[in-house]
Amino acid sequence: MSEKMRINRYLSSCGVCSRRKAENLILLGEVSVNGKRVKDLATVIDTENDEVRLRGKVIKIEDTKVYYMLNKPSGVISAASSKYGEKTVVDLIGDKKYRLFPVGRLDKDTTGLIILTNDGDLTNFLTHPSFEMEKSYEALVKGHITSSELDKLKKGVMLDGKKTARAKLRLIKKKGNNSLVEITLTEGRKRQVKRMFERVGHSVLTLKRTMEGGLNLGDLKEGESRLLSKKEIKKLYEKRR
Length: 241
Ligand code: URA
Hints:
- The two termini are 27 Å apart.
- Strands 7, 8, 9, 10, 13, 14, 15, 16 and 17 form a 9-stranded mixed sheet that branches. The chain has a 4-stranded antiparallel sheet with strand order 3-2-5-6, with no helix packed on it. A two-stranded antiparallel ribbon has the order 1-4.
- α1 (7-13) crosses α2 (19-27).
- It is α+β, with helices and mostly antiparallel strands.
- The chain contains 7 helices and 17 strands.
- Bound molecules: uracil.
- Residues 106-107, 110, 191-194, 207 line the site of uracil.
């Protein structure tokens, strides 16, 4: 069925990238419509009748949307491709049929739950800062963390001149000279968990994401992935305001 939509939305619906990234690609002159380069962000695409190309490659809307959960191992980057030949989360899924990309990011050395999909709309709203999706992590931090340090982190600490939003923290257990802590955030600033713990004097030794948007990693092993159930996909969409 033919549909009309702005060019940035078209590219993100095709699973190429987020709408914001699509705008950059358009402004950089990387996108053509029916053989002509377009730089006007207001360009409207007829999904049935226009031919859109990105760097010369035809980009089509895939009717089938797929959603995976991956337990990312350390040493793998959360990107769709790597300039330097590093292994990516998309390589680990190994589904060549769809143009998948990760929803949000984890640092290279962080393990745990990451969602991958070709559904650009879902990615757009889940990664938008105003959305405040809850994410939980298990952090093994150096030393024994005190309850007053946990309280400081709950109330918020200054990062880049701005206080972090209220967070949930729970000491899971002491592990030798270190502490295993669960932290739940609604923000996603760069290296946020690591920098928050550094603020109260504890460096993060290992970090694993265990929950995102109400979906739990469960017993999925590192490096393994699975398709999300219909119920889980519905759960993510229900969070849309
Ligand atoms: N916070 C971090 O510091 N790193 C991550 O990968 C995710 C959250």
